[in-house]
Write a structure and sequence with these properties.
Order of helices and strands: HEEEEEEEEEEEEEHH
Largest sheet: 6 strands, antiparallel
Strand order of the largest sheet: 1-2-5-12-7-10
Number of domains: 1
CATH topology: Jelly Rolls
Shape: globular
C-alpha cells in the first residue's frame, strides 16, 4: 500500500481549504444553463465534477456545505467517518471503507445543502477517497461553517462542531 506522501506526490494533490489534500480529476466540458438549474445556483454549472481527496490521521475536513449532491467513493487506506447534519439537526455518521462486515460503505451521497465534515475513523492512518458532484462543483457554491453560527442552530452537536470546524 502506498503512503499518504506517495499518493500526494503521485496524484499531484494540493491542500484543500476545508482540510486534507485534493485534485480535480474531471470537469464535464458541457454546461447546464443557469436557467435550467434551481435558483440556488448563481450561474451555469458543469454537468459533473470529480476529485481525489486524502485525509491523514490527525487532520479533518471541516464542516461545510455545497449546493449540489456529493457522492463519496472509497479507494484506499483506512476507513473515513463522514458526519452529515440534516436541516432538522439529525446527525448521521457514515463509515466509508472496504469492510462491509463492519457496516462500511464503498460510497455514500451527501444531499445538497447539508452541513458535513469528515475525518479518519479512530485507528485510521489515512483515507484516500473520491468525490463526484452534480451539478458540478464551483467554489461559489461552497460555504465553510462558522462554528458559532452552527452551534446556535445545533446546540446538541456543540462538542462535535468544536472538533470539526476551523
Amino acid at each position: 500500500m502506498q503512503s499518504p506522501q506517495q499518493l500526494i506526490q503521485q496524484y499531484h494533490l494540493q491542500p484543500h481549504p476545508e482540510g486534507g489534500w485534493y485534485k480535480e480529476t474531471y470537469r464535464s466540458n458541457e454546461l447546464i444553463a443557469a436557467t435550467a438549474l434551481p435558483k440556488r445556483f448563481a450561474g451555469s454549472r458543469a454537468f459533473a465534477t470529480a476529485i481525489y481527496f486524502l485525509l491523514e490521521e490527525g487532520n479533518f475536513s471541516a464542516f461545510h456545505r455545497i449546493k449540489s449532491d456529493e457522492c463519496w467513493h472509497f479507494y484506499a487506506g483506512d476507513s473515513l467517518q463522514v458526519f452529515v447534519m440534516q436541516p432538522n439537526g439529525k446527525l448521521e455518521i457514515i463509515d466509508l471503507g472496504n469492510d462491509s462486515s463492519r457496516g462500511q460503505l464503498f460510497q455514500y451521497t451527501v444531499p445538497a445543502n447539508c452541513w458535513f465534515a469528515s475525518r479518519p475513523a479512530p485507528g485510521s492512518k489515512f483515507c484516500f477517497v473520491g468525490c463526484t458532484v452534480s451539478p458540478g462543483f464551483d467554489f461559489g457554491d461552497f460555504d465553510l461553517a462558522d462554528k458559532t453560527v452552527l452551534a446556535a442552530l445545533y446546540p446538541q452537536h456543540i462538542s462535535l462542531l468544536h472538533e470539526l470546524c476551523r
